[in-house]
Amino acid sequence: MAKVEKSQQLKEKISILPDTPGCYLYYDAAGTVIYVGKAKNLKRRVSSYFNRTHDSVRTNLLVRAIADMKYIVVPTEGDALNLENSLIKEYKPRYNVLLKDDKSYPWIVVTKEHYPRVFLTRTRIKDGSKYFGPYTNTGIAKAVLNLIRELYPVRTCRHAITPDFINKGKGRLCLEYHLKNCLGCCTGQISPEKYADMIDHVKQILRGETQELLDYLKLEMERLSEELRFEEAQVLKEKYQLVERYQSKSVIVSQTLDDIDVFGVDDDNTDVYVNYMHVRRGAIVRSITLQYKRRLEESIEQILSYAIVEAKEKFNLEYDEIIVPVLPDMEMPGVSFIIPQRGDKLKLLQVSTHNARQNKVDSLKMMEKHNPEQRVERTLERMKSDFRLSELPRHIECFDNSNIQGTNPVASCVVFKNAKPSKRDYRHFNIKTVEGPDDFASMKEVLTRRYTRLMEEGEGLPQLIVVDGGKGQLSAAVEALDDMGLRGTIAVVGIAKRLEEIYFPGDSIPLYIDKNSESLRIVQHLRDEAHRFGITHHRNRRSKGQIISELDEIKGIGDKTQTALLQHFKSVKRLKEASIDRIAEITGPARASIIYSALHPDEQPQ
């Protein structure tokens, strides 16, 4: 393969690169960072860009645009991954994978104060406060906050309550205290130590340690009951029930699973959705879905590694055991990656994958709501990929032959534009040159007639032809295109009826498209429409043949007279029952006499 020629200065930089882990930055002629990458071995990785032509068009475009390069050496590959993540966020290079879901999520913060407050925020400040989250669903965050406030009377005022503030008597009991929603922190009604115990229980809930809190509440209930303090025990019982209900909504699998991080992936070709969940005692305590847009055909393994670093940064995590669908393109000392095959861990991975998929569906629905053409474009892109097309199939035509017991052979052509039926463009064909039931010859005749006429009239040709049938019908279609000089101009595929197999010209092995694929759904719709349209026309021809067969045998009676008679009398039977005078009202006396005599050979006209 041809090498990419670069400036002497760039060649010299590459030649002296170290064989160590690090990050490299590519610049264009204007001095803009266009790509950031990580490497286990800088020299080997960077050299690989310039010593061959790549399969990816975008990678070749990137290499052509590189005018300069810089690098940063780090101790380990893990450090390189973290640095790469930071550099991508700083420079936002045009060729790097794009994190599309980089919005600000709400957190629940427990402030670092003499009497801490607990509230919702979207801003993280490094002031020693403890942040829990982020919560991708604001409704869930508010529900957790409401639970905390039902359980514990945490203060909500914004006063900077310090020992000096209390000693100087600057505080004043407010309505919240009298409603028993606050314990009077501003006047020292509760000691900081007792208030801190309450805050510890709040943190347990926010960390998902609800079982520990339930155990504590149960012991306290029993102690108060033994001391005959039943009213206080009842208050704790109500708190216990609240926490229990909250926990029951979160537990999804065996509670033996503790402190596990899970990453589920759903790949949509251009976009990849990665769901992160943290599970403690079988309950999901954190969940977020990140959406990445591919720029250089990055693999699932690469994007998964980006997501693991992104989640680590967002949640300030320390990983121990991570459940993944594939091994990420990274090394993390002290962290074990597990690809589960069965059991509760597999169930967790399936839940995470389902969340990623659902997030994709929701995202697509939202885009389609704001831009109705988005779904059409996505469908056409999918079809272009599945059917190996060079352009989007905005105009598709499908052909189907119909002959029952060898009679009245016909064919139908249905047209889809932008993945939707264009019924005004549907066409019927009566087979003219083929004797007997020969589907292959009929297919060739119809395609030849169709596209010869389109070219003569200067009409646009389709990007894709679908023929209803297997290799035989497809070969006939290819022959027709060859004869017209259209081979290579129009793509053509065949769809076999039994197993929904897609055949390509010159390829004996069919393609089996995913049953849930939009591409297969569109092709099935085309095939079904062509079949329906063809059968309707065929039935009409057969019915018409049966109705006028007797009238066809009467010499001197043409199509117009036959049509006028059938429109008036509705059937040959009623025509036979009519008098010659009634027939004459439609055809005139001379023709009426001929018709009556032909239909009543044993009678004399009256």
From TrEMBL:
Gene3D superfamilies: 5' to 3' exonuclease, C-terminal subdomain, GIY-YIG endonuclease, UvrC, RNAse H endonuclease domain. Residues 315-481 form the UvrC family homology region profile domain. It comes from the Bacteria. GO terms for cellular component: cytoplasm; excinuclease repair complex. The lineage of its organism: Bacteria, Pseudomonadati, Bacteroidota, Bacteroidia, Bacteroidales. Residues 211-246 form the UVR domain. It comes from Muribaculum gordoncarteri. GO terms for biological process: nucleotide-excision repair; SOS response. This is UvrABC system protein C. InterPro entries: GIY-YIG_endonuc (IPR000305), GIY-YIG_endonuc_sf (IPR035901), GIY-YIG_UvrC_Cho (IPR047296), RuvA_2-like (IPR010994), UVR_dom (IPR001943), UVR_dom_sf (IPR036876), UvrABC_protein_C (IPR050066), UvrC (IPR004791).
